[in-house]
Amino acid sequence: MAGFNTAITGLKAASTNLDVTGNNIANSSTVGFKASRTEFGDIYATAVVGAGSSNVAGSGVTVTDIAQNFEAGTTEFTSNNLDLAINGSGFFQLDDGQGGVTYTRAGAFELDKDGYVVSKTGKYLQGYGLDSEGNRLPIQNLAVDQKESPPQATSNIGLSFNINDAADPTLLSTPYDKDVPASFTYSTTVRTFDSLGNEHTVKYNMVEQRPVRDVYAVDVTFPDTLSISGVNVSFDAAGVPDATDLDNLRNTDKRIDTSTLLFTQDATAAAGVGSVSFETYAKYSSYGDMNISDSTGVNITPEPTERDANENYAYKLAVPTADTELNIGGVAIEISTNPTAPTLAEIAELISVRQTDIKDRNPNVESVSVVEEGGEFRLDIRFKAEYGNIGSEFSVTETDMATGAASSAVLTADTTKTYEGDNTYRGQYQMYAYLNGTELLDIGKSVDPGETGFSVNSTDTLSEVGAVMLGFDPTTGFLSSVNGTSFSVGATAPELTIKGADPANTETLITLDLSDSTQFASASIVKTSSQDGYTKGDLIGVSFAETGEMVASFSNGEKQNLGVVAFATFENQSGLQPAGDTEWGATLTSGNAVLNPPGTGLNGSLRSAALEQSNVDLSTELVRLIEAQRNFQANSKTLETLNTVTQAILQI
After folding, report:
1. Cα 308 to Cα 288: distance, rounded to the nearest angstrom
2. Distance (Å, whole) CA 433 – CA 416
3. Which of 100, 101, 512, 637 shows its CA 20 to 30 Å from the CA of 283?
4. What pLDDT score does 41 carry?
5. Could you give the dihedral angle defined by the CA atoms of residues 523, 527, 532 and 538, in that order, rounded to the nearest 10 degrees?
6. Cα separation of 239 and 221, whole Å?
7. Which residues are within 8 A (CB) of 137 and not within 5 positions of it... i.e. 6 or more apart?
8. DSSP 159-192
9. Given CA atoms 394, 398, 402, 405 in this order, what sign does their dihedral have?
10. 207 with 184: CB under 8 angstroms?
11. 3-state secondary structure of 609
């Protein structure tokens, strides 16, 4: 009777189902475990093919497949960065070091004694190595092979600040002294590291230019030649400089206002004896060294004096012989000679009482005053320095009231008391840099004209220790020039090069970027500050990014990518062969593994400090267990029934 065999196949199938279900239940807490399902097929020993029906009893049941469910399990987070979970599709690839390669979703990894990332069974996690440029290398064993981070000398500094426009440069103490805070407008410090990892500081002092001009004067006897900033300037016996020499000086030393180059005759001496004087622009007051030498090459550079950068008009007062209208900046003052001409003191009083009117009508006027010296009276009109040269914006005229013709009866120009204005100081700062607050650094200041290394072509000019000029647009407050190079708002500021800030390596150069610095009327603050140097660091931990990068963290705050975890995918993951320890092996049915970093193609992302739990549903498995048990009992009943029938036949 074939029924016995049929019942036996049913018992075997039910037993296999019990085994599979029991295995699922047993691994309900196994990390990365994938539940299996028993699939059955019926058995027919023969098949009749024809026009009629086939009345053939089946031969039982067979297990056609034990299929695995690769649905993702629940992700649970842990406190161990080496616990990894795959959020999406893919498998970790493991290598046992003997050529055996398996795949798993169980990401409970750890470091072995050699720093390799291994599974709990000691197999090596596979990934991409990285070269020094961060390019991926072929698949290999991932390892934490960097136990320390070597020091790196600072090579780039980014610094942006706001410096208070409301600060009054005229209140600064002079001369500038790095140890006297009252002599500079603002100061800030950035830490740096040398090539051995020692920490240092670079302190920056900003000194706002004051509205003054430096005045140089040397005693001379002409005809002779002076060397000014390395340019030979010849003077004739009357003290007039050679025009060509003057052009050369103007093109060589941009600090000098050559229009002020003047020979003043000594009234008590012979012709050609006196002094040569000139002024620097207010932008460059107290900036750099001046070099003046006589025809024999002897240095005769004096200490400069200062004069205010305000424009000044000066006139000697005289008593008119006819009625005259004096018009000062649009304010008319009548001076009558009837019945008698006024005295100089009375004329001075007429002007003085109108000072407020003149200032109200002319915002660029700082003061109007009449000064008495040795019985003579002088009218001084002083303009605010920030207006620079006033020119035709302000006029002083005289008119004969009887004829309406221009007159010069009251005022006579006093040229010795007249100065041009100069507002080039506005928004200008000298910036000094000091290593550890003491040693003045070379931050790109060009060698002064007349010194060795100077060149008219600024690209060929050597640099020296000292201050560089920073310029802010006085109308917008944005940084507009660095060390003489101008740039537009929003553009990257020209970089400065700092030399000598690495005591361990004199060849180290540091690039300083001051972009986005401003001069607004608010508190002086640092807006951003950064530098790329650091000291030696020891390994303190390893973590993984979502895209698979294995990142080492060091005690100096640095991070370094050591490799990238590789994810394996298959054309048919159901064809994978279980290999135990929640691992699978590739087969012909599954196809070869396709390896890519996480987050690329169909790969899922990587989660650090997380583990994928078993995907077993205990409720479902318990129901299946009951079903398998009843199937087994039913097939046992079939055997029992067939046995009874057989006994009955034997008793006939």
Report:
1. 19
2. 41
3. 512
4. 82
5. 90
6. 9
7. 128, 129, 130, 131
8. EEEE--TTS-GGGS-SS--TT-GGGSSEEEEEEE
9. negative
10. yes
11. coil
Determine how β-strand 509-513 pairs with β-strand 156-162. Answer: parallel
Q: Which residues pair with 479 in a beta bridge?
A: 472
- Write the CA distances from 650 to 287, 637, 639, 645, 647, integer angstroms: 129, 20, 17, 9, 5
Which residues on adjacent β-strands are paired with residue 254?
none
Angle (CA) 551 557 560, round 5°: 25
Q: Which long-range contacts (CB under 8 A, 24 or more apart) does 169-175 make?
A: 169/208, 169/209, 169/210, 169/211, 169/425, 170/210, 170/211, 172/207, 172/208, 172/210, 174/210, 174/286, 175/286
Tens digit of pLDDT for each residue in 282-339? 999 999 889 999 988 899 999 999 999 999 999 999 999 999 999 999 999 999 999 9
pLDDT digits (tens, 9 = 90+) for 248-273: 999 999 999 999 999 888 877 777 78
Structural tokens at position 602: 């169909």
Which residue intervals of the chain bear CATH 2.60.98.20? 156-209+427-531
Residue by residue, what is the 3-state secondary structure of 275-315?
Answer: EEEEEECHHHCCCCCCCEECCCCCECCCCCEEEECCCEEEE
Contact 424, 282 (CB under 8 A): yes
Structure confidence by residue, pLDDT tens digits, 207-264: 999 999 999 999 988 878 899 999 999 988 888 899 999 999 999 999 999 999 998 8
Instruction: Give the residue carrying structure tokens 């690039």.
Output: 511
Question: What count of other Cβ atoms lies within 10 Å of the Cβ of residue 329?
Answer: 21
CATH of segment(s) 156-209+427-531: 2.60.98.20
How high is the pLDDT of residue 629? 84
Compute the Cα dihedral for 467, 472, 478, 479 and give only its sign.
Answer: negative
Q: How many CA atoms lie within 13 A of 150 on its CB side?
A: 4
pLDDT tens across 550-577, in order?
999 999 999 999 999 999 999 999 999 9
Give pLDDT tens digits for 8-67.
888 888 888 888 988 989 998 899 999 999 888 888 766 555 544 556 677 788 888 888
* Amino acid in position 387: Y
Decide if 104 contacts 583 (C-beta within 8 A): yes
Find the angle CA(517)-CA(523)-CA(526) to the nearest 5 degrees. 45
The closest alpha carbon to 140, from 563, 551, 560, 550, belongs to: 563
